[in-house]
Amino acid sequence: xxxxxxxxxxxxxxxxxxxxxxxxxxxxxxxxxxxxxxxxxxxxxxxxxxxxxxxxxxxxxxxxxxxxxxxxxxxxxxxxxxxxxxxxxxxxxxxxxxxxxxxxxxxxxxxxxxxxxxxxxxxxxxxxxxxxxxxxxxxxxxxxxxxxxxxxxxxxxxxxxxxxxxxxxxxxxxxxxxxxxxxxxxxxxxxxxxxxxxxxxxxxxxxxx
Length: 209
Prior knowledge:
Elements: E1 10-11, H1 28-41, H2 48-61, H3 77-95, E2 102-106, E3 110-114, H4 125-132, H5 139-142, E4 145-148, E5 155-158, E6 163-168, H6 171-191, H7 195-198
Antiparallel strand pairs: 1-3, 2-3, 4-5, 5-6
């Protein structure tokens, strides 16, 4: 799933509520439509009938890209039920493709969260940082992934919105910076008396790229 290599912790859809708040949160129907749309963006394909149904929902919930969110619902309750069921199927599809050490959950948005289980086969660096509950200077870079600039071809280490290190000439150079930060994070965890967290380092996933 190349679409998931640029993962990020936190919400992957806009937030929804019942009722929606115009301009701020989507209605539940709008949220469910976002869940279906997210899965389609990430590669889930429906049959012809399913694709047609998505277009019909879109016409009713989003007739134009400028229309304000938070006020639109489906007129037919059975149609709303079908949309909710389709969103549940889409969420199940997403859950099966979560990166190792993470899980997709539906709160008031679809969110990618680290699995907070220290006994798990894979323990995400984000989980360790969250469980530490204290400021660790190496944390931000240690939890980074690396990506290439489409304009310069150089590599950076960062999160979904910010670069914390770079530019680097190669992906390996950027990865090495993150790995060094991970070593520092282990030392800082031990200094904070959290040997239990530091001891999971051999089960941290490879640096995402």
